[in-house]
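Milestone M4 deliverable, item 7.
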Amino acid sequence: MLVNRSIWCAAVLLVTVGGLGATPPACAARANDVDAAIERGNESYARGQLREALATLQGAQAHDATSYGVLVGLARVESELGEEAKDEERRRLIAAAVEHARAAIKAAPEEAPAHVWLAAALRQQAEMEGHRTRAGLWREIKSELDRAIGLDAGIARAYLERGRWHRRLATRGLWEKTLSRVRFAKVPKGASMDNAVRDLEKAVELAPQAIEARMELARVYLALERGADARRELERAIGTPVNRPRDPGLQAEAKVLLEKLTRRG
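Output delivered:
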C-alpha cells in the first residue's frame, strides 16, 4: 500500500512536469517529511547514534519504501550495527542490510555508496557462512567494490572494504584455497597483502579520523612484520578522538597490540 502511494505520487509528478496540473499537497508534504527524516537519520549516524538513526530511517521507510536515501541509509546503519551484534540479531541486521543495499542499487544504480554498503554487508554475511557459501560471495563483493570505486574514487569505505577483501583472500587457509579452485574457479585473482596495504593506505588518506581503517592497516602491517609502520598506525588510532560506537573497543585493541610490540622490542 505504501509503495503504491509512492508510485501514485510519482505518476502525478510526471503529469505535473508535463504541464497538466500541480503536485498534490499530500505528495509534496510526504516527500518533504521523508527528506527531513533522511537528514535527521544522517545526522544521528554522523554522531555515532546508530539506534536513533535506524529508528528515524525506519519511520521514513514507512512513508516511502522506495526512496534511495532511505534504503542506502538503512543499509549503512544496519551494517554498522551488525558489526557488534550477536547471534540472531546479527543475522537479522546483516540480512536487512543486504536487502536494503540491493534495493538502493535498483533505485539508483549509478550511486556509489549503495555498492559500497552492499559489499560491506556481504562481507559480514560471508563471515557467518561456511567455506562453500563464503567462496561464492567473494566474487560479488569484489565486483561491487570495483564498481563503487569506478563511480566515485573518493569513498574511503570502499578502499577499507577492498583492503579487507585482499587480506582475507590472501591469508585464507590451504583447504579453503583448494575448495575455491575446485568449485569456484571464477573467484577474482590478484588478492595480495601488497594490494591490501595499497587500499588501506588510501582509506586512511581519505579518512584520517577513521580509527577502523587505521586498525585494519596496522593489522596488515603486523602480518607483514612491518613493526615501525604498525606502531605508527596504532599510536594514531589511540590518539584519534572517538566518533563511532566501535572506536573505544578498537582503541583498547590498539593499546594491547602496542604493548606487545614494545615488549618485542
